[in-house]
Amino acid sequence: MLEFLPFDPWKAVQFSQVLLRGAIMTVQITAGALVIAIVLGLMMAVIKTSRVRVVRFLVDAYIEIFRGIPALTLLFILYFGLAYSGLQIKSVPAAILGLGLVGCATLTEVFRSGFEALHHGQREAALAVGMTPIMAMRNIILPQAVRITLPPIGNYAIGLLKDTAIVSAIAAPEIMFYARNLVTSTFDTTTIYVLAAILYFCLSFPLARIVSRLEERRRSWQ
Amino acid sequence: MEESLLRVEELHKSFGDLEVLRGVSLVLSQGRKLSIIGPSGSGKSTLLRCINYLEEPTKGHIYVNGHLVGEKLVDGRYVRMSSKELAPQRAEIGMVFQNFYLWPHLTARENVAIGPQRVRGLSKKDSLDLADMMLEKVRMARKRDEYPERLSGGQQQRVAIARALAQEPRLMLFDEPTSALDPELVGEVLKVIYELADEGRTMVLVTHEIGFAQEVSDEVIFVDKGRVAAHGPPCDVLQNPQQERLCSFLGKLLGS
């Protein structure tokens, strides 16, 4: 009865149910990697404000190294390479760790530019009232830097969500992993990948809306 | 001998090859007000910033209330303090900046309260009460819940003064407190500083407002090329200048 459609709606519903299971995993991997990237990125950005040159050098080296390695390569090292040397990491933790480590290099730069956007007078005023540098960082610099960096972090999260597609290569059961499995068993390539695309869009679009809201709000401190 | 509240000994400060301060010494007793005047680039702001160690002097020593600031004597040698040791010393010195530097993510009230709360460990309620008192003093109580971006320059500077007062400092430093203000807003800030002077606070002001310096201060120093070129009561330094450089500086400033 619905033969005018270019695809079989009944099958599409079945495919969607399978892909939705993957969507939950996609969200979990994104969230996990995001938390690692934010925590490590923030730590490294704070460390980069240190006066000790060796410490700054180590952070810079980390950033350059991870900026220069494709995420997929890192995932293979974590998943296959480490297993070979006796350290077995399961696919999902490997995916979260790998994307988190790569993301942390990006977010360190985001946080660092957030700190730099603040006038040094902000910090001096904090020192002048008797705060230690650590108190000034916590009470004055960080709250402002986080506010400034929320929109770029949101944009990074959107990119990350889409990049999780590559972790299907180490068999983490997310959207693309299920999509490829379905294609192998049903050969209904177009329907399945279009459904996967729709699913990714449904996940990333709300995030994009949140980011533009944050960008509007950033213009005011209230 | 009367113990001086502030003593600056042979202060030198260089930025790279640039020698900004070349041996400045001064003494200020409790309750006295000192104005520092001088052409831009003469080192007067640097001198003020050295007093609370926002700039570390290249040579020389600062004493507030008889205590070395930013350094300690270990086996007869001067050693730089850690930032943790320095912080409580800075808390005893209030500083008002040219560009206010209020914290934009906090309301006026929170700007004043956060120091007492974090530095002196006051409870949240006590620190907010203290903030209200200080804002009352600078006539900003009505605007206490506004964020800095909603305040005029003069209002922001008054909040910044309240923030410094909340430290209950022994010494107040003002770094050109009205230079960033529109002319019509200068008066309200100067009025607040007058009132503080009347309370008998010890103050050091860097200013270009000669009339104000004359009225408010007990002493004036003229800093030129990193040295104290003239020092005395305002009537001598400002009205009866002896040095040629000081005469031409005052002449330019007063537009005559």
Write the layout of secondary structure elements.
The complex is a heterodimer of chains A (222) and B (256).
Chain A: H1 9-48, H2 53-67, H3 71-84, H4 91-117, H5 120-128, H6 133-163, H7 175-186, H8 189-218
Chain B: E1 4-15, E2 18-29, E3 33-37, H1 44-51, E4 59-64, E5 67-68, E6 71-74, E7 77-80, H2 83-91, E8 93-96, H3 108-119, H4 124-137, H5 153-165, E9 171-175, H6 183-198, E10 202-206, H7 210-216, E11 219-224, E12 227-232, H8 234-239, H9 244-254
Parallel strand pairs in B: 3-10, 3-11, 8-9, 9-10
Antiparallel strand pairs in B: 1-2, 1-4, 4-5, 6-7, 11-12
Helix pairs in contact in B: 3-4, 3-5, 4-5, 5-6
Question: Can you tell me about this structure?
Answer:
The complex is a heterodimer of chains A (222) and B (256). Chain A has a single domain (12-218), classed as Orthogonal Bundle (MetI-like fold), CATH 1.10.3720.10. Chain A is built from eight helices and no strands. Chain A has helices spanning 9-48, 53-67, 71-84, 91-117, 120-128, 133-163, 175-186, 189-218. The longest helix of chain A has 40 residues, at 9-48. Chain A is flat and about 75 Å long. Chain B has a domain at 100-168. Chain B is built from nine helices and twelve strands. In chain B, a hairpin with a 2-residue loop joins strand 11 (219-224) and strand 12 (227-232). The model of chain B has no long low-confidence stretch (mean pLDDT 94).
